[in-house]
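subagent[fold] <- orchestrator: predict structure for attached chain, return C-alpha cells only, no commentary.
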Amino acid sequence: MNTDSGACSFPARDNTQNMEHPKRVTQRDLASHLSMSQVTVSRALSNHPQVSPPTRKRVLDAARELGYQPDPVLGSLNAYRRTRMPIEKGQSLAWIIGQEEEDMGAIWYDGALLQANQYGYRLEKFNPNADGMTPNRVMKILYSRSVSGLIFAPRRQAQTQLNIEIDPFSAVAIGYTLLSPIVDRVITDHHNNLMRCFQNLYNAGYRRIGMATTLNTEKRVEGRRISAFLYQQYCHPDVERIPIVQYPNTTNEMSLLVKDWIKQWEPEAILCHSPYIFTICKELNLQIPKDIAIVSLAQNKRWPNYKECSGIDELGSEVGAFAVDTLVAHIRNNERGSAKERYTHMLEGRWNPGKTMIHPTLPLKSTKKENH
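subagent[fold] -> orchestrator:
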C-alpha cells in the first residue's frame, strides 16, 4: 500500500521514554540516612533558625552526597501556600532611623508602609541610637514588638556603622549609606538616571551641560552620579566640558559659589539635586528655560512645582515597596543576620520631560569659553 500521499508523517515513538528513571532522593531518604526526623531535615534545608549550624551542615553535606534536589513542583506549591498564609498576629517590621533623621526616609517610607500592610505586617519606626538605648535594650524592644524584619532607612552621612545585633532578624537597607551591618540593598539607579538626564539634554541640543552638587551627597551614592557625568563629558569635545561645581551645605556660601561658577563657565543647562538652584538663577536674572535649563537628578515633592520640573523621578515609593518585597522574601526563606554576599537591587527612575528645559532641538550656541 502506497502511503506517500503528502500527509504529514510522525516519527516512531521513542521507546526509551518507558525506561525507568533513577529514583529521586527525597527528604524522607535523607532523614532515614541521617537518623533524623523529616521535620528536622526540612527545616535544615530551608535554613530555619531553630536548626543548629552543625545539624544544618550535616544535612547539607548528606544532600550533596546523595544527590538530593528539591522537587520544583512541590517547591512552587509550598511558595504559593506561604503567600496565602496569614501573617502571625502582631508581627511587625521595623523601619530603622537615626538621630534627627525623621524626615530622611519620608520619600521611601510611604511606599514601604503600604506594601507592608499588603503583606499583613505593621511597619514601625525605631531609633536604636535614641537616648538611653543599649544593644541589649534594643533587642528586648524588638522582641517585645514581635519584629521579624528590619529596613534600614537612608542615613544623612555616608558609610554609617550601627552597633545593632541583627542575627535574629531578616534585614535590608535602602541606599548605600549603611556600611555595617552588611545587608542587601535596594536603591534607585543613580548612574543610569544621570546618563539619561544628560543624554536627553544633549539630544535636545544642549552642549555646555554643568553639574552642581555637594561632596556628602555624592558620597551617599558612592560617586555614581559623578562617574556617569564624567563619562558623558569624556564622550564629547573638550569645548563642551564644564567642571563640576561642588558647593557647601550652607545657603549663603552655596549661592556665592554657584553664581561665580555660572558667570565663569556659562552653562546652557545645570544638572542638580537642590531646588535652591532655581533661586540662584533667578537672582542672576536668568529665565528658565529660555536662558538656562535646569534638570533635577532627584525629583520629588520637596521641589516647588516638582511635576513641572524636567528631570528624574527616583520613584521613592516604589523603592520603599520593593525593599519590603525583598525583606519579606528573606523572612519566608528564613534568611537572617548579615549577608554573606551582599546583593544590590537597583530600580531605574522615571524621566519627566517637564518645562524647565526646551525640548525641540536647539541650534548649538557659539561658545566663548574655548580655552579654560
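orchestrator: received. Logging for downstream: The radius of gyration is 28 Å. The first strand starts at residue 92 and ends at 96.
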